[in-house]
Backbone:
């Protein structure tokens, strides 16, 4: 990259299945206060630009980008709101810093999912209005179809998907920020209510409320502010076609392309050897396996067996979602990517406590925007 | 700066309810116009072909998503295809259990590189498999109104 870029502060509010005490603005404010204290900055004096991500329909407010500046200390300043995942927002912040026009940029994402009363309808409204929406099916059917094709093409056993749930929800038991930690069995996961065969209810991440704020700086500013910056080594994003009728179904091409872009920037040739752990999208259990393969951490068909052998557990060869992922922490809508980044920051700082990965020096965070999208974003961080 | 006091009792945690009444028109466009007219008038499927990539698009497109060529060649394609993948969905759009689960599939239409998302009918969920040959079942001509639901469902061939 043209300039060094680092994360110098991180804050959060949450994460809980409901948050009746705080409005989304107050959650953002709480996360922002933590992030600014962590970075040792005053937003009204020091921050050059603010980037937020939000999706109007999830907020229940149209033109939602007008609603983000005040509670971050961003009024009367450059503001940039993106309809994307938090990692897309982080990419925008990196690009702003690379221009040389900005040295300190704040990124925010949040979820007030417990206030969304018609979630499946919102996802259905994201499908093609002419070719798909008149069929009026629950949009998780798309995940069921994708999962079936992925399992068939890679000969991945159902049990491997269930093991992802068991692992991530158990990891979340050691994460005080996680909303959905639990001890459950493979049998309980596979025996839970059927949603869209072969996808059962416990293989779908439940939602959580919360907010994440990150403070991003160029190298010189970062070194002046802290002696332990978390460096952004590479970042990438990609979309496959949105059309259901021409997407590949079995493979996550968007994840492959996003990762390749991030690896190119970071100069990474062999991801599994050069990266120590990953926090990757697990909105549905099979997605963790499909994404592991697309991101190049193993070959197609290997992620399931790797998981069954315990290779992706906290103490395994390559820890995946030591935080508990979305399955264990709760899915944060478009805040999910920054929740993954937040965990990578904790791990690289050695602040992850009982779910700390040993010798964590380089980590990846990867986000997918959920059904019906084919939108992915990846970032590689190091200490 | 921080949150000094918090709401301490659930009965103090007030909420306000709202809804957004959204209605829209969706222009089906040049390709959609012809695609849906053929379904309505003739019970047939037509796609567009990219001569550079040798791809046949169903649903039809005015442009190739691979090479970005403008597509002008229309081809009639069969109303049969193969189940590329499928699911049995158990919830309705409100998240409530469906009395009768629905089989939803992506059907790759024969002789094309695309296909249609639709219900499968006249078949038990246990009998469906990837690769199964199916055919479109159209509504009676009088009932058709130029919609994807003019196809009632796809059913196994034979
Ligand atoms: Zn072409």
Residues:
């Amino acid at each position: 990259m043209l300039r060094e870029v680092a994360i110098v502060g991180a804050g959060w509010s949450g994460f809980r299945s409901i948050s009746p005490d705080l409005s989304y603005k107050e959650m953002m404010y709480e996360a922002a206060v933590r992030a600014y204290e962590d970075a040792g900055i005053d937003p009204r004096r020091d921050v050059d630009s603010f980037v937020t991500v939000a999706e109007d329909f999830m907020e229940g407010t149209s033109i939602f980008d007008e609603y983000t500046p005040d509670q971050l200390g961003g009024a009367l300043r450059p503001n940039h709101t993106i309809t994307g995942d938090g990692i897309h927002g982080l990419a925008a912040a990196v690009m702003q810093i690379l221009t040389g026009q900005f040295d300190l940029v704040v990124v925010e994402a949040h979820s007030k999912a417990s206030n969304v009363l018609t979630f499946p309808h919102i996802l259905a409204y994201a499908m093609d209005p002419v070719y798909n929406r008149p069929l009026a099916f629950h949009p998780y059917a798309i995940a069921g179809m994708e999962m079936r094709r992925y399992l068939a093409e890679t000969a991945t056993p159902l049990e491997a998907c269930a093991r992802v749930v068991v692992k991530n929800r158990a990891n979340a038991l050691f994460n005080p920020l996680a909303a959905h930690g639990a001890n459950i069995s493979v049998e309980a996961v596979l025996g839970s209510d059927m949603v869209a065969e072969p996808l059962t209810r416990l293989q779908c991440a439940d939602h959580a409320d919360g907010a994440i704020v990150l403070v991003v700086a160029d190298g010189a500013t970062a070194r002046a502010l802290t002696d332990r910056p978390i460096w952004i080594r590479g970042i990438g994003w990609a979309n496959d076609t949105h059309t259901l009728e021409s997407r590949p179904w079995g493979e996550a091409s968007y994840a492959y392309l996003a990762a390749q872009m991030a690896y190119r920037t970071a100069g990474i040739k062999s991801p599994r050897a050069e990266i120590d752990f990953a926090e990757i999208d697990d909105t549905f259990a099979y997605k963790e396996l499909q994404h592991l393969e697309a991101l190049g951490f193993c070959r197609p068909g290997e992620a399931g067996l790797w998981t069954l052998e315990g290779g992706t557990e906290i103490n395994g060869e390559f820890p995946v979602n030591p935080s508990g992922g979305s399955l264990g922490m709760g899915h944060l809508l478009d805040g999910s990517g920054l929740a993954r980044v937040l965990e990578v920051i904790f791990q690289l700082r050695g602040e992850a406590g009982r779910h700390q990965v040993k010798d964590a020096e380089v980590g990846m965070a990867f986000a997918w925007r959920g059904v019906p999208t084919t939108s992915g974003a990846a970032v590689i961080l190091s200490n | 700066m921080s949150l000094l006091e918090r709401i301490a009792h659930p009965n103090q945690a007030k909420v306000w309810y709202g809804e957004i009444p959204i209605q829209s028109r969706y222009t089906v466009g040049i390709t959609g116009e012809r695609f849906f007219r053929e379904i309505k008038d003739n019970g047939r499927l037509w796609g567009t072909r990219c001569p550079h990539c040798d791809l046949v698009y169903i649903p039809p497109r005015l442009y190739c998503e691979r090479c970005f060529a403008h597509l002008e060649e229309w081809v009639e394609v069969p109303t049969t295809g193969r189940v590329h993948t499928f699911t049995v969905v158990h919830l309705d759009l409100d998240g409530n259990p469906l009395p009768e689960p629905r089989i939803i599939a992506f059907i790759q239409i024969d002789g094309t590189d695309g296909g249609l998302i639709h219900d499968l009918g006249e078949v038990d969920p246990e009998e469906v498999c990837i690769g199964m040959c199916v055919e479109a079942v159209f509504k009676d001509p009088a009932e058709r109104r130029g919609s994807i639901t003019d196809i009632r469902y796809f059913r196994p061939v034979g």
Observations:
- The first helix of chain A runs from residue 24 to 39.
- The mean pLDDT of chain A is 97.
- Chain A has two domains: 5-118+208-230, 139-206+231-382.
- DSSP finds 15 helices and eleven strands in chain A.
